[in-house]
From TrEMBL:
InterPro entries: Ig_E-set, MoCF_OxRdtse_dimer, Mopterin_OxRdtase_euk, OxRdtase_Mopterin-bd_dom, OxRdtase_Mopterin-bd_sf, TAT_signal. Residues 98-276 form the Oxidoreductase molybdopterin-binding domain. Its cofactor is Mo-molybdopterin. The keyword Metal-binding applies. It holds the Pfam family Oxidored_molyb. PROSITE patterns: TAT. The keyword Amino-acid biosynthesis does not apply. This is DMSO/TMAO reductase YedYZ molybdopterin-dependent catalytic subunit. The lineage of its organism: Bacteria, Bacillati, Actinomycetota, Actinomycetes, Micromonosporales. Residues 317-398 form the Moybdenum cofactor oxidoreductase dimerisation domain. It comes from the Bacteria. Keywords: Metal-binding, Molybdenum, Oxidoreductase.
Length: 410
């Protein structure tokens, strides 16, 4: 069997396992969590490079016209993307930090790989990584909780977590080396099943418990498919807030998979667990089993490049926006300017890349002044679209319903 076939089979195997409900029970998860120990960043040794704390949780400026700040996180204002290009400029790219942006010395930095899925532990300097075959991809990083506040404002439901609107997404051009290239260079064993990158940021403490470094496993099939280890964003060195000197970029998967400040990668011949795949980033609630439902891929979403509650003139205006889906490119986008009663097809503009987004525009001549509700509804290449409502989950992930965007015409 050649390597590609092996990789494909592993991914299929992993997906089949999930589809047939061969999940782990909550007790299994707790037992495993106990086995690896609290803060179970096992085997990494000392951190790969000196990290020091920056002055605040986020280093770059966060002007209020570009961002809404929530503690250690900053959401992009959609109106600030109007008239920008296909990529989100770094000065307005959202930031999601569990703790704080660390400042890491790129010279002493090392990426450490270890675990039962490798022939031996090995480490790479940044220069060594840069001598491997390089690659550039355009891909979105989007938080699983993007749109979370809409569970409450549209569906009247209680959810916990950062109350994002739709600005916890950014599309960037990422340059680096494929994770698969690094894994093979590191001496990947054929029985490896999971790959878990971990960050060099401070350990995440929740409810007084030290959960260790931010980390979440990827199945080997995904790790060998299209995952990148990036040191550049939009043709410039990766900025501190987005993971310098090296971050993981996992196309089409929830943002937590894309570990920033990656200092170590565990490669294992057995399934790996961390709080980020047992406690967080699972769907909990009435529609789900007690141990929750693991999530990985994103859903279909759309946003207008307009302020929330924007004021528009009582004359012809051009509405612009973007739509995206983890399943592939967008087939079409329909817009309603009357709260969902009638729909018109938007004109799509520019590239329509898988793993990124499709920009669109449509003219609107409001007939009356006052409050109006705009809705954009995308359909992707697989026919997947945006429903009127989505099932509740307590942590507020994957809000893929049609968003009712309020505007005032005056
Ligand atoms: N080490 C580390 N990696 C991390 C995080 C973090 O807090 N620490 N946050 C994750 C989450 S939840 C998201 S949504 C993305 C956000 O990437 P960005 O801040 O570059 O937009 O990074 C992910 N990688
Ligand atoms: Mo996230």
């Amino acid at each position: 069997m050649d390597e590609t076939t092996y990789d494909r089979l592993r991914l299929e195997q992993w997906r089949d396992g999930r589809a047939s409900g061969r999940g782990f029970t909550r007790r299994d998860l707790m037992r495993l969590a106990a086995a690896v120990g609290v803060g179970g960043a096992i085997g990494a040794g000392s951190a790969g490079g000196a990290a020091r704390a920056a002055d605040g949780p986020i280093v770059k400026p966060l002007p209020p016209e570009l961002f809404t700040v929530f503690g250690t996180n900053a959401e992009t204002r959609w109106e600030s993307l109007k008239d920008t290009g296909y990529l989100v400029p770094v000065d307005r790219f959202f930031v999601r930090n569990h703790t704080s942006t660390p400042i890491i010395d790129p010279v002493t930095y090392r990426l450490k790989l270890f675990g039962s899925g490798l022939r031996a532990p090995v480490e790479f300097s940044l220069d060594q990584l840069k001598r491997l075959p390089r690659e550039t991809i355009t891909a979105a990083v989007e938080c699983a909780g993007n749109g979370r506040s809409l569970f409450t404002t549209q569906q009247g439901q209680t959810v916990s977590g950062t109350a994002w609107k739709l600005g916890a997404i950014g599309v960037g051009r990422w340059h680096g080396v494929r994770l698969g290239t690094v894994l093979r260079a590191a001496g990947l064993r054929r029985d490896a099943v999971d790959v878990q990158p971990q960050g060099l940021d401070a350990n995440f403490v929740s409810g007084g418990v030290d959960l260790g470094p931010v980390r979440r496993p990827l199945p080997i099939g995904k790790a060998l498919d299209d995952v990148l280890l990036a040191w550049e964003l939009n043709d410039a060195p990766l900025p501190p807030d987005h993971g310098a000197p090296l971050r993981v970029v996992v196309p089409s998967w929830i943002g937590i998979s894309s570990i920033k400040w990656a200092g170590a990668i565990e490669v294992a011949a057995e399934p790996l667990f961390s709080p980020w795949n047992t406690q967080f980033y699972r769907l909990f609630g009435a529609d789900h089993p007690a141990e929750g439902t693991l999530i990985d891929e994103q859903v279909v979403k759309s946003a207008f490049e307009l302020a929330w509650g924007a004021t528009l003139p009582l004359s012809r205006t051009t509405l612009t926006g973007r739509s995206w889906s983890a399943n592939g490119p967008i087939r079409h986008v329909d817009v309603s300017t009357d709260g969902g009663t009638t729909w018109r097809r938007a004109h799509t503009t520019g590239p329509n890349l898988a793993n990124a987004w499709q920009r669109w525009r449509i003219d609107w001549s409001p007939a009356t002044a006052g409050q109006h509700t705009l809705i954009a509804r995308a359909t992707d290449v697989t026919g997947a679209t945006q429903p009127v409502t989505v099932p509740h989950n307590t942590l507020g992930y994957l809000f893929g319903a049609q968003v009712r965007h309020p505007v005032t015409v005056a």
